[in-house]
Predict the structure.
Amino acid sequence: MNAIVKLRGSPILPRRLARASLALIPAILAFGSITAAPAPAVPPAVASALHEARIPLDSIALVVQEVGAQPAVTRNADVPMNPASLMKLVTTFTALEALGPAFTWKTEAHVDGELKDETLAGNLILKGGGDPKITLESFWLLLRELRQKGIREIRGDVLLDRSLFAGNAHDAGRFDEQPLRAYNVGPDALLLNFKAVRFVIAPDNEGLRVGVRADPALPGLTVRNTLKLTAGDCGDWKTSARATFANGSDRAEATFAGTYALSCGEQSWNLSLLSQAGYAANLFRGLWQEMGGTLAGQVRDGSVGPNSRLFATLTSPQLAEIVRDINKFSNNVMARQLFLTLDAQANGAPATTERAATTVRSLLAKRGLVFPELMMENGAGLSRSDRISAAHLTQLLQTAFASAVMPEFISSLPLTAADGTMRKRLLGTAAAGQAHIKTGSLEGVRAQAGYVLDARGRRWTVVAMVNHANAANAQPAFDALLQWVASGAAGR
């Protein structure tokens, strides 16, 4: 989910952020650099690729360092840079150490009335614990447990207790004016199915018509389809489909009125519709009805009261698995959930992003990782204001390698030419399968960081960040860097 956005202002940073970053440099210089002595220049193949991409060397921050040794290559190592999704490395490593790889989240179902003859004479309360991964399937299992324990008819309301996280309204369009994009979903203590709807578009078996279905089929979502099936190449099928969306708090409408090529086969389109509470209400009603349940009242926000009792619990996957999903696939909303969880665990409810940033800095400092330039907005890197230096990101990677949670942390990073966001990178090269690398991208930003095992069996940390208008052209340089390290050239 590496989102593409536009950085306004200068080619590298917005003007006011550039001033803020420059103001940090004296403090960073006072703290000191990781470089004890001048390191070799940027590898020629990397410098050549940057030149070809019209990216000046002043726009890249770079550190290549063998684990436990001194840096072999540095460039602008102490300059604060926008790391994009590399900020997830800070969030996930901090969480693994502070919470432990076996940490889990609990989503609770409480009742506050008498249950008799499959009828609950009161309210059902769903209390969110901040779980980043309540999928459609796992929420279905929770409701199935309620049915198996004897609830069929709910005479009262269903209350959504979302109080663990602060209730500040999330502006999904603030980041890049794309509020329906799934990567812009905000955190919520009772986040269900990533607040996403998957539209599946496919021709019928006879190749005569094209159908559109929504998964989940929310009661408040209307789908209108007048798509015409055509021949020819698939091309830009989303544009051809001429889809429009009217999105409200608890009701939405999706209209598909263009054309769709038979050659496209089956395609899917993930979008975020309805408000957090509206989505949860629709999802509950739809699944509950499918299970034969009835609800006399409303689905609304509320809280667990003194007379309620715990009835069922949904336990999340362990943190090690959650971190793997966050880093392998650069999942922004899961990273946001984890960021706020760190604050909730340290300081109690309601968790806020401001407190979470302070909590992360404090936890890092206890580990000896003091990063004066560090700026974190939401823990996911989906931000124009986030900053960290390549030197300090390298320090974090080096510390992580010596940590007890090293196996969980490294295995969460995409493996070159194998999985995650690196699945199609470096295929057929010496670096294939030899590097665990987290990537990051915004418009004007490209970044990668992680670990490379070279041809001589040595492990290296590699951090590279480009902040420049031509950053989208940086991939050949990044690939050249990983191949150079994997070949063993960094240690010669």
